[in-house]
Design brief:
- With 467 residues, the chain is mostly beta strands.
- It has three domains: 53-90 and 136-247, Immunoglobulin-like; 258-356, Sandwich (Immunoglobulin-like); 365-464, Sandwich (Immunoglobulin-like), CATH 2.60.40.
- Helix content is 13%, strand content 42%.
- A hairpin with a 2-residue loop joins strand 16 (290-301) and strand 17 (304-313).
- Helix 2 (56-65) crosses helix 3 (74-83).
């Protein structure tokens, strides 16, 4: 037989598990719930939800309430309606306190129904206070029936949308106004997952509208509508059947990208290359929305032309160009690309030229104490050549610089029979041995290095002795 203490421990463990499960599920679903809130007109900021003030349902309710007022009284009536506290019709849904629903994260999202978008109500539950779709609207008195979109047609220049109106008994309770919303996507085939979010098209008192602003060939549309009177609304209708706006077999490609400009030309870190920003505006007209842009960067090297290509998403209208050579002319182009089904529509290229700056002049500083420290004959009786060591004062290196400074040396004979070309060498030491120099010759020695944007240079001449 299970003891009383064991039973208490078992029940305590069950409660603890339920609470832990509630916490974990709430943490997991917070991101999804925040996204859903944004689509419903609610923006979550640092755990506190701020509701969009652009609530067309509340606006339409107040317009319906003040519809029969005389013109001079309508502004006062409307302002008072928008400021008053509105307890929306319907009831909050009742849920199981031991289960956390995906649409009920642990948030303090609202303080009253006024804080919630559309027909949503502010509801307290076991895991916070959030905006929830109400229940029982079908039984709430004084509300207009939910309309139904009965026709969508294409007149060639506009889309016509028609919906049902409330029954006469309900309409008699007051003026009814409507909010029409749409969603769409571009493509040869209807794909529900590609539909945009619902967007309000118009608020109207009629049950049929011609929408010139929505006429766009090659797009699939759906519509929904809400009927609103001074008491509120029962919500939006079910989405209409998808409607395709006809497009001609031959589709014109997008136009030329506009305002192609080059800006912010500057030297990159290290001073070896230059960089700039190429920017543009979308084409003035495109039957099908631009899907992406292609950037071309061309440069001529003798008889050859080299080209780099880059793809840029349609919502980005600039591209940083890096590793540009100094004193070089580049040919820059941008092309808009659209896609419809398997068709790829490429527009004409906008173009401009870019001439980069000349080589960057470094601040010049002098290498000090450059001198000849030793001259020796080669220990070979059959040779009359000379070895020479030169030295200089080291360039002071910052303590944080890990790499050693590298010096570049060049030396060449002057005023003698030696016609050999100048020789070059590199060293990390502050001295260098020049070997096998001709006697009775004057030599020019140049030592240089670079550090922190400055160029250090030193030079001197010396004569080799007569053997």
């Amino acid at each position: 037989m299970t003891s009383y203490c064991d039973d208490v421990r078992h029940r305590s463990s069950s409660v603890l598990v339920r609470r832990l499960l509630r916490f974990v599920l709430s943490s997991i679903t917070i991101t999804a719930a925040a996204a859903a809130a944004v689509s419903a007109g609610v923006i979550a900021t640092a755990g506190v939800a701020v509701v969009s003030t652009d609530d067309l349902v509340r606006d339409a309710r107040c317009l319906a309430k003040c519809y029969r007022q005389i013109s001079s009284e309508k502004p006062k009536c409307y302002s008072g309606c928008m400021d008053e506290r509105w307890i929306k019709p319907g009831e909050c849904p009742v849920g199981d306190d031991d289960v956390v629903s995906l649409d009920r994260p642990c948030l303090e999202q609202c303080a009253s129904d006024d804080s919630c978008h559309s027909e949503y109500k502010c509801c307290r539950h076991s895991c916070g206070v959030t905006c929830q779709p109400p229940v029982g609207l079908a039984d709430s008195p004084g509300l207009p029936n939910v309309p139904r979109v009965i026709a969508v047609s294409d007149s060639g220049k506009a889309l016509a949308v028609e919906w049902t109106q409330p029954t006469s008994g309900v309409a008699a309770a007051g003026h009814v106004t409507y909010v029409l919303q749409e969603r769409h996507h571009v493509g040869a085939e209807y794909v529900p997952e590609r539909m945009t979010v619902w967007t309000t098209v118009i608020r109207t008192d009629r049950t049929r509208e011609h929408l010139r602003q929505l006429y766009a060939p090659g797009r699939w549309f759906q519509f929904r509508v809400a009927a609103i009177n001074e008491n509120g609304t029962r919500g939006y209708s079910a989405p209409s059947k998808q409607f395709f706006v006809h497009i001609e077999p031959h589709i014109n490609p997008p136009g030329l990208p506009e305002n192609l400009t080059v800006s912010s030309l500057k030297w990159s870190a290290g001073g070896k290359y230059q960089q700039c920003l190429l920017s543009w505006s979308p084409p003035d007209f495109s039957v099908i929305p631009v899907r992406k842009y292609k950037v071309f960067i061309s440069v001529r090297d003798g008889p050859h032309v080299y080209q780099r290509r880059h793809i840029v998403p349609a919502d980005i209208l600039s591209f940083p160009i890096k590793k540009l050579n100094a004193n070089t002319e580049y040919f820059l182009q941008v092309q808009a690309i659209s896609e419809f089904g398997r068709k790829r529509l490429t527009g004409r290229k906008a173009s401009t030229t870019l001439k980069t700056k000349g080589k960057k002049l470094l601040n010049s500083k002098k290498i000090k104490e450059l001198k000849l420290v030793n001259i020796k004959n080669i220990d070979n009786l059959n040779s009359d050549l000379v070895n020479v060591r030169i030295s200089w004062s080291p360039v002071v290196r910052p303590l944080l610089l890990s790499k050693k400074i590298v010096y570049t040396l060049s030396w060449s004979p002057k005023d003698c029979d030696d016609k050999s070309k100048a020789l070059r060498a590199k060293t990390k030491m502050a001295y260098f041995d020049l070997l096998s120099l001709n006697p009775q010759c004057k030599y020019l020695i140049v030592v240089s290095t670079k550090l922190n944007g400055s160029k250090y240079v030193g030079s001197f001449t010396f004569d080799t002795p007569t053997l």
